[in-house]
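Table S2 (text version). Query chain:
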Amino acid sequence: MKILNIVGARPTFMKVAPLHHALERAGHESLILHTGQHYDPQMSKVFFDDLGMPKPDVYLGVGSGSHAVQTAEVMRGFEPALLETKPDLVVVVGDVNSTVACSLVAIKLGFPVAHIEAGLRSFDRRMPEEINRLVTDAIADYLFVTEPSGLVNLAHEGVPTERVFMVGNLMIDSLVGHLEQARRLPIRREMGLADGRYAVATLHRPSNVDDPVAFGKLVDLLVGIAAEVPVVFPIHPRSRKQAEAFGLLDRLEASDIRLTGPLGYLEFLNLLDGSGLVVTDSGGIQEETTYLGVPCLTLRENTERPVTVEIGTNRLFGNDTAAAAQAAHDILRGEAKPGRIPDGWDGHAAERIVAILDQLLNRPADRG
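Corresponding structure-token output:
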């Protein structure tokens, strides 16, 4: 089979890498198309290097822009690339703009689409990612699910069960495959961090960093945690820009908060693995901390990954930074919420996906 895997932003690299390697091991032709949604070397190339991925077979270079502009530019660039490569299947992952854009083009041209990480729902249509998830799942031929909520959501939306497959989590495949390599890095020692006695923070969602009041409350939260333990904050370029605009950067730099630029996959995994606490608004980090057993405080009103709250180490706080601060204090005193690893998060999701694709593509897709 010839499989065309779509990547565009950092989270998609971690999910496609193990699938690409599994497809090649099974003797299939696995092509990688990078839309260029994340184009900065620290947001893109370093992840390819860390994950052992080859140079993309196709690079569209769409760059940044509004959601409408970025989605339109991906569609414009993807159409001729798709017609030239003529794959047996287009694989899209996650919920970024590249995912929905490439799915629309492929389906309209008659190419089957598999969506990996299907069925996740925040039930908040103010989130652009939620719209991307809904549209992609509505038109994809094959839907691969990471957790039980995905099966329930797709059933409620009327997706035929013969198109839906519970396979586990490709993000965890990457984590399992690279954890020992990450642990050998010296970054914690170089930063003077003691295992379990520091926190990691990531904040990038517009609802958190585009509003000066909301961002200010989050800075207060991080400064408070930094009074107890060092906080490593790999600040997204856009978040740094907003912090400067709102006059918040000086407050961050005046405390024991280690501001860094975006980190490579292995460096960041090393920091997550050794941390005692994570504060985030990211989706994928909720999954990684659950696997690693690290307490996670998520500054969002909802999560599309409810299994991380139901059985994992994740807790939701919305905009209640006072409650999050108390939880952080309790965790650092040893009162963390217990958690366990969800079923199928075992490092073998890619192998299960390839086995299913081997069966599916021997018969025509049924869009019913």
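Notes on Table S2: DSSP finds 17 helices and 13 strands in the chain. The CA atoms of residues 131 and 197 lie 38 Å apart.
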